[in-house]
Structure formats: structure tokens, C-alpha cells
Amino acid sequence: MMLKNSFSLVSCFFLLAFATSCASLVEVTAIEQFSKAIENEDLKSLKHHTTMKFSKVALRDKSSMDDLKILKIPTGETTIVEITDISENHKKVVAEVGKNKKKLLYELKRVSKTGEWVVDDIYINQKQKNLNVMKSVTEQMDLLLTVREFVSAWEEGNRDDILGTTDGEFKDSLEQLHPAFLAKLSNKVAGESKSSKKKRPDAQLDTNIAIIRLPRRTGEMVISMKLNDGKWKATDVAVESRVDGQHIASAKKQAKMLLTVSKFLDAYNQNDKNELKKYSTGQFFKGGLDFADLKLAALPHSQDAAADYELKIENNLANFVTQNNGKMINLSLVRVESDEIDIPDKYLIEEVTLFQDQGNQQVTLTSLFSTRAITLLFSEALSKRDMKILDFSSTPDFSTRVWKRVAPQLVAQLPLDEITEPGFEILDIQFNGAITKVYARQGNLPVTYILREHLGQLLVDDIHLDLKDRPASVKATLEMMVRVQNYAFSMHEQNIRDLQRHSSRDFNELVWRQVEHVPQTAFNIPELLMSNLASLEINENEGYSRIQLGNKERGATVLFIKQQGQYVVDDIMINSDSAVSRYLSTKKELRMSMAATSGTLKQNAVQAAYTISNQSDAGNSTSPQPVTVPEIQPAAFEVPQQEP
Asked: pTM higher than 0.70, yes or no?
């Protein structure tokens, strides 16, 4: 009885050992068949010894064997360490494989038709810096094959294939991008890569994020990927290049910039200002595009701009440089950061620069459009004699010398007839640094507006025109004419103080310092001074100016001299056909009136001597003796006062 029980116990032990041995043999066989297929690089056999899921994901491409080598899956002698039955047809097996006895976790599944156990997945422990994670071969192979598919799609440039490899903001920007821009970008990203056999991607994985570095001939491609719904998709790609001009810090950012450029150019060529406003900075749009006639400055269409361009990026700024009819054009972009976390940053066009004359001359659209606008505004203000607009749109020098000196009562009398004829037309614009020249036609008269940059704004500094017996500068002409008209107004208003301020020392000494009212003469001098301009001469070297008004029969010639840095009236020669000599000195006429009219002189005023006759008395013994004139010291001469 005892012998019988012993036999039964030994039999059970051997049966258990045999069963365990048979089970281990099944797992070892499945693993070794898988390993042998890898060693032999037999893709067909490998597919036979793996599940359909593994084959479709990890073995879906001819290059799968190359990527399996990258993973360096251990092969060789296999020792089972632990077996866990998940279900009747599913096992998890921990095995030591190869000479180094590296532990791997295999998932085995039984094929229902044949009953054969095959590999469903393998987990390898990855150590990367501070990371220690278990990654499945299926997941890693999927990633590596996705990288190859990404590179292939971008090298071939097929739009649908490229979009199929991307996700998120990256895909959104690429989808909206003009096909020509996408093709150019894909070409820049793909570049010249190494042959497929030499490509050895270096992948760093962490949960659902991966960074893949792929060698190129001149550098390296860095792809950022994210696992979404079981599929790896690129969220960005960078190109680190040793060749100047081929470095791409972020293809996603470039796609956003190119999308802005493309949308801007489309809106510009369609004259759609509502769309232009979306892709322009507020300052650029309001300062130039909003009121501009866009047909005046041609910009290339998107597909033409994409044919040959260069994108230079520095921090938050970028410059898109392209050609249009052989002329270079630069679109400057700026990144606008969003305050909202869920709203991505965007890029806007902040200026467009046109290069002409082989790059020697450049002009911004803001300058071009604002130049036309300010010129048209100024021309209209001249016609309406709108002093506020003229002052606002002129340089400080122009305003100080002309517009701010015009007496309100004399605005309507400004001598502007030649430059306010109907039919103003701009013919051409030339830019040269801070100076801009606008060539135009006023009626039948060619005129040139001179605009100067002041505090970042273009303002009218002068107008040049070619008229006989006048300076080319309208500013210089108006400056003198305003002085004449103000002088006439001061005489009309009996404003002795203003007359003193704008008269020479001699004129003051002989007349204005001795009277309280303007002496009456036979001629209406203020009216003569308001006559039409006949000629104007300014001699800066000699310090004098001569202005002829009216005509020889009825008019006046105003003589200015420069004292204390400003022109003052020294005399007014009256042109009259009623006078014997036709020309009479206002100083003489006023002196004669002072002498003939009682009560004209101030009390206690000492009248200075003055020779009235124009004939020489030299050698005539009967000529009257000169009147004795009290000596007047220089300190007694009144110095013209400065404008308040």
C-alpha cells in the first residue's frame, strides 16, 4: 500500500514537470522563431510568427527590417523567467534573451485557426536621462515607420500625404497655405537627406510625445511628434543646417508666417481691405493701406511670390523677401502674442518695402501712400486756403516761416493763384532718404512738392515751380509776400508798433519813431501793396530782396534789407504814371506829409533832415544850405523786435 502511494506521488511530480516543460517549450519556440526571423532579415517569416496587429503596425513597410535593427532587439538563446496567463489564448512571458540575458516582456497570442502561439508585442525597458519607461516594439516601430513616411511625404511634396503626417496647429496652417508655398516649404524641409539605408533616427519617447532626430547631408532634421488616437503625427519640424540660409527653427512658425504673407498678398491684389486689415498691424493699416489706392503699387500674387523667396527670422520679427518684375520686395512680419492661453500667437504684416533702381532706392508702402495722401490733402487745402490743414501738413520750418505769420484777415488774399489751378495730378514720386519729391501738374503748370520726414511723418516742406522772375521755392516767395501783405495791413490799421518791428532802422528813424499815425499821402500805399506779384528777387549773399507788385503804371516795388537775421522793409517805391519820375519813395512821401501836415509828429519829436530833390546840387552856388541834423547815437536807433 505504501509502495503504491509512493508511485502515485512520483507520477504526479513527473506529470507536473512534463506539463511545465511543455508549456515553456511552447513559449520558447514562439520567441525563438521570432528571433530567428529577425536574424535572417526574413520579413515574410517574421509576419508569419507575429499577430496581424503587429504585422500591420510594425511590419507595414519594406524598410521595417531596417528599423527593427535600430531597436536592437536581442536574439539568441532564450530562457523563460516567468509566465502569466492572461486568458486561454493570451500570455505574458518574461524571458532572458541573448548572451547578455537581457530581460524582455513578450506578449504571445494563439492563432485560432492553427493553434500556434505567435508574438503580439515586445516591451523593452528604455533608459533616457531621467526617464525609465517600458515601450512596446509595436509603438516604437510605428513611430519609426511614421518618421519614414513623414520624410517620404515631404520629399515627394504631395499635399495630401504631407497633411496626413501632421496634426494640430501645424496641420491647420499647412491646410490653408497656398499650394505653391507648401511645395516650397516642403522642399526646404526635406532638403538633401542621406540614403534610406543610412538613415538612423534617434527617437526619444515619453508617454505620448516623441522627439526624433534624423541625419541630413548638411545637418539634422528634428521632428516633434505626438500620439493621438493611437497614431503618431508631427506637430512641428526643425532643420538644423550647417549651410547658411537653410536653417529652419520651426516649420510650424514658418507655415504661419507664409500663411500671413499669402493671405495678405491675395487680399492686396483683390483690393479687399477688410481682409487686409486681418493680416496687417493696426498702425500699418491705418497709416497707409486704409485710405490708399492699392493699384498704385503692384505686389506679386501668392504663387509668384512663392516661386523664389527668402524668409529671415530673428526673435519675434521676420522678413519675407521676394521678386516682382525683377524688383525686390520685402514684407516685414511681427509676432503678436495672445494674452489667452488657448489662443495661439499670430503673425501680422507691419510694413512692405519696395526696392527700386537696383536696390539703391527703397520706399515703404506707408511712405508711398501717405506721400500721395498728404500731397493731395495739401493741394486741396491750398485751394480752400484752409490754414489748419496747411499748418498740420507742413514741416515746422514751412509753418513758422509762412502759415503762422498770415494775419487771419489776409488769408483770402494769399497769392496762391498759380498753385491752385483746377486739375491737380500726381505724375511721379521719387524717394531719397528723408526727402521725397512728388512731381505733379497743376492745370498746365508743372510743380514739385518737396516732402521731408519729421518725427516719423512725411510733411510738405516746400513747393517748387518754374516761373519767370521768381525763386523756384514757393516757401521763399510766400514768406516775402506774407511780410508785404502784413505790412500793408499794419499801415491800413495804423499799427505803428508793427510797422516799427518790420521796418529798417533808417525807415524807423526817418518816419515811424516820429509819428503816432501813418501820415497821409496822395497814394493808397496799402492798396498798392496788395497788387499782384510781378517779380521777386532774393539775394541772400548781399542781404536784400526786391519785390515788384502791379505794373509800371500802377504798382509798387518793395525793398527789403536783412537786419538782425530777418528781412525788414527799407522803402517802398511807388509806381505811378501821374508822377513825373514814375517812381516815388514812400519814405520821401511820408516825410513830405509829416512836414506839410501839422500835428503829425509826436510831441517833442526831432525831425531828421531829408533831401527831397532827386537832382544833384553839386557845384550850384545858389543851392540851399543843408539843414543841420542833430547827431543821433546808435543806441537811439530802434532795433526791430522779434516775433513773439
From this structure: no
- The residue behind cell 504661419 is 256
Question: Phi and psi of 72, rounded to 5°?
Answer: 50, 55
The DSSP string of 613-640 is --S--TT-TTSPPPPP-----GGGSPPP
Distances in whole angstroms, Cα of residue 376 to Cα of each of 432, 435, 440: 20, 17, 10
In sequence order, the β-bridge partners of residue 87 are 90
d(CA 484, CA 502) in angstroms, rounded, equals 10
Q: For the chain, which domains are there? A: 17-128 (3.10.450.50), 140-249 (3.10.450.50), 254-359 (3.10.450), 360-465 (3.10.450.50), 467-644 (no CATH)
What pLDDT does residue 635 have?
Answer: 29
DSSP secondary structure code for residue 531 in this structure: S
Burial 403-439, CB ≥16 within 10 A → b, else e: bebbeeeeeebbbeebbbeeebebeebebeeeebebe
Q: Which three cell numbers stand for residue 370?
A: 501717405
pLDDT per residue as tens digits for the range 535-562? 999 999 999 999 999 988 889 999 999 9
Say yes or no to pLDDT of 630 above 50.
no
Q: Lowest-pLDDT range, 299-308, 397-406, 606-615?
A: 606-615
Can you tell me the distance from the alpha carbon of 85 to that of 75, in angstroms, rounded to the nearest whole number?
23
